[in-house]
């Protein structure tokens, strides 16, 4: 069982505008980028639980590989959703980040 504060690294491709949006949101909310990653994934998982979700976004090839340190318990939940929906967990995380940034009007 994962420690509540434990983090696991996950590499995904992020286009520059998504990476910059995360940095901007972290500055605006006076928090770390890790906290933005966690908030985005937590929000996505909660909103997905309330309604069916039909599509996931794919990271663009022009994206740069970025290491994200995510809360391990959240990442475990992402892996369950990804397996159930037959997509990669990177796709679930990328979709969560993009939709969260759009919701916050940063992207």
How would you characterize this protein structure?
The protein has about 110 residues and is an alpha+beta fold. The chain has one domain (about 5-105): Arc Repressor Mutant (Orthogonal Bundle), CATH 1.10.1220. Helix content is about 55%, strand content about 15%. The protein is built from four helices and two strands, in the order E-H-H-E-H-H. Helix 3 packs across helix 4 (about 90-105). The longest helix is centred in the middle third of the chain and has 18 residues, at about 35-50. The chain is globular and about 35 Å long. The model has no long low-confidence stretch (mean pLDDT about 90).
Outline of the structure:
The protein contains four helices and two strands. The protein has helices at residues 16-28, 33-50, 72-85, 89-103; strands spanning 7-14, 64-71.
Supply the key terms.
Arc Repressor Mutant, globular
What is the secondary structure topology, with strand pairs?
Layout (H helix, E strand, L loop, with lengths): L6 E8 L1 H13 L4 H18 L13 E8 H14 L3 H15 L4
Antiparallel strand pairs: 1-2
Helix pairs in contact: 1-2, 2-4, 3-4
Number of domain modules: 1
Number of continuous helical runs: 4
Query: What's the rounded overall pLDDT mean?
Result: 92
Helix content: 55-70%
Radius of gyration (CA) equals 13 Å
SSE string: EHHEHH
The unreliable regions are none
CATH classification, class level: Mainly Alpha
Q: Give the full name of the CATH homologous superfamily.
A: Met repressor-like
Can you summarize the main beta sheet? 2 strands, antiparallel
Briefly note the CATH topology name: Arc Repressor Mutant
> Proportion of β residues?
5-15%
CATH architecture: Orthogonal Bundle
Number of strands: 2
Structural class by sheet pairing and helices: alpha+beta
Cα shape: globular
**Termini separation (Å)?**
35 Å
Spatial ordering of strands, largest sheet:
1-2
